[in-house]
Design brief:
Chain lengths: 298, 244
């Protein structure tokens, strides 16, 4: 299934008794991109990811990874690496033995264990019991487990939870490096600033429903008043923007409110030889857009 | 399948569970055999039947094997390791099958060690009291081999029961209450011999049992039936459950 998207949710629904966690959720994750999976706490992110990974059974719909259900993957560790919560370890087992167990079950050569431990900088603590690990070390161990089969796809559920700033920086650099090598990443988070620094695309859900799925740039730009531009020739600029399909409204004293990114407005002005006195984005951060879409429930 | 068995075996030997339970078992054997040999009269100890009773404490290993089996299956949920386990091996029935094999192997190994220790300790202490040994008799060997077989079955039974309940502590507590309280109460109705604990006991007794137990063959068949029943139900529950 080489042409299939790495991750595809088709009409996913999950009900727990009378509670509906996810409702008719459909989206795809493009290959070679970092996709942020956002939503307030309790939005259904973890449930969705667990349905994709075959851990939770959908009430309706289908969750596909590399074009097939996770259960049907012939060698899942080589296709997908998953980082879930940081407590999936036996406290009395060493980090190295935890990975040996998973490598054995997945049919991954034993030598790979020491390689991934080095990759996540845990070699020095590899023989210590996991109950002596800090939260950051456990997250690194989770990442090491995800990397065992050298997968092209990583699925991470709130990986920054509980990490200190150094750990967050390490994770960010790691994921950037992984994506730069052609990997695909689906990362859930409610730490919006973290995702804003990483993601190419965002999928936003609220109350288990999809509320947005687009590139980070377009999501940011479509917020109201995305750009404020001031020009002595504001009327002509407004005409040229309209010709390009970009809506602009007068904001007084030669200023325009433009529903496009500053880069786009600047390009239109330059093409028309229009002088600008001011060009600035108007606070359309991902967080503001997110709050518009989901309410103040973060 | 073989790699899943290897992975499950690795789980057992990379924690101290088996070590601590093994030491507990050997300590219990040391205490019981030492008391038995030191308290009984020389005439009594000289009888082959009584020497068989001395080493039969090794049968406690079947109970320990049951606990090991429960921990092997339900411990995945207690420690949250079910998720990484099923991510590596998403066909969950195969994982349960691998655990059944490893539960049986762990039970057999534990029981073999317990039998060897009990036999050696009994031989030493009886010799110290200058009692002629009958530890090579058929009755003694039958109970030791029966113990190893029963422990293997108990280990697999524990895996099936642990898979079914997915509650480590609850399953162990329930097993103790069942064996110590419920099965004796079943004697009132005269049906205790068909209960899992008594079926396993008839395997341990290996043909030397009294009237309150099934024959070896019937006990073995019933015990294996319990294993299959728990395993099938457990695999269905594991397959159908959400790992959250």
């Amino acid at each position: 299934m080489a042409d299939a998207p790495p991750v595809e949710a088709r009409g996913l629904t999950k009900r727990y008794g009378s509670t509906t966690a996810v409702v008719d959720l459909s989206f795809t994750v493009p290959r070679g991109r970092i996709t942020g999976f956002l939503g307030p706490n309790g939005a259904g992110k973890s449930t969705t990811l667990r349905m994709l990974l075959g851990l939770v059974h959908p009430t309706a719909g289908e969750a596909l990874v590399q074009g097939v259900r996770y259960r049907s993957l012939s060698s899942p560790a080589r296709e997908v690496g998953a980082v879930l919560e940081a407590d999936g370890f036996h406290p009395g087992r060493s980090g190295r033995n935890h990975l040996r167990v998973l490598a054995t079950a997945a049919g991954v050569p034993a030598g790979r264990v020491d390689e991934v431990l080095a990759e996540v900088e845990l070699t020095g603590a590899a023989r210590r019991h996991v109950d002596g690990y800090s939260l950051g070390m456990r997250q690194r161990l989770s990442v090491a487990a995800a990397l065992l089969g050298s997968p092209e796809l990583l699925v991470l559920d709130e990986p920054a939870n509980g990490l200190d700033p150094e750990g967050i920086r390490w994770l960010r650099n790691f994921l950037r490096s992984f994506a730069a090598d052609g990997g695909t990443v689906l990362i859930s988070s409610h730490v919006l600033a973290e995702v804003a620094q990483l993601a190419d695309e965002v999928v936003i859900i609220h109350h288990g429903r999809l509320v947005a799925h687009e590139s980070l740039e377009s999501l940011t730009a479509r917020a109201a008043g995305a750009t404020v531009v001031r020009s002595p020739d504001a009327a002509r600029l407004r005409e040229r923007l309209a010709a390009e399909g970009v809506e602009a409204t007068e904001a007084g004293e030669g200023a325009l409110h433009v529903t496009a990114a500053p880069e786009r407005v600047g390009e239109v002005a330059a093409a028309g030889g229009i002088v600008l006195h001011e060009l600035r984005g108007e606070g359309a951060s991902l967080e503001e857009v997110f709050l518009q879409l989901t309410g103040d429930e973060t | 399948m073989s790699r899943l068995v290897a992975a499950e075996a690795l789980k057992v030997v990379t924690t101290r569970l088996l070590l601590w339970l093994g030491l507990l078992l050997l300590g219990l054997e040391l205490l019981v055999i030492a008391l038995h040999v030191s308290q009984d009269s020389l005439d009594s100890l000289a009888e082959a039947r009584n020497q068989r009773d001395v080493v039969s404490i090794a049968a406690v290993s079947a109970l320990i094997a049951l606990i090991v089996g429960i921990v092997l299956a339900a411990g995945e949920y207690a420690h949250g390791t079910a998720a990484p386990t099923f991510l590596a091996a998403p066909v969950r029935e195969r994982v349960v099958a691998a655990k059944l094999v490893v539960g049986a192997l762990a039970g057999a190994v534990l029981a073999a060690a317990a039998c060897a220790f009990a036999w050696g300790l009994a031989a030493l202490l009886l010799s110290l009291r200058s009692v002629s040994l009958h530890l090579g008799s058929g009755a003694v060997l039958r109970v030791l081999l029966g113990t190893i077989l029963a422990a293997a079955i108990a280990g697999a039974m524990g895996v099936g029961f642990g898979s079914l309940t997915q509650r480590q502590t609850g399953a162990i507590v329930f097993a103790f209450i069942w064996l110590l309280v419920v099965e004796p109460l079943l004697a009132i109705a005269g049906i205790e011999r068909f209960a899992p604990g008594h079926a396993l006991a008839s395997v341990v007794e290996a043909g030397t049992q009294g009237s309150d137990l099934l024959s070896f063959g019937a006990g073995l068949a019933l015990s294996v039936g319990y294993v299959l029943g728990f395993a099938i139900l457990g695999a269905l529950v594991v397959r159908g459950s959400d790992v959250t």
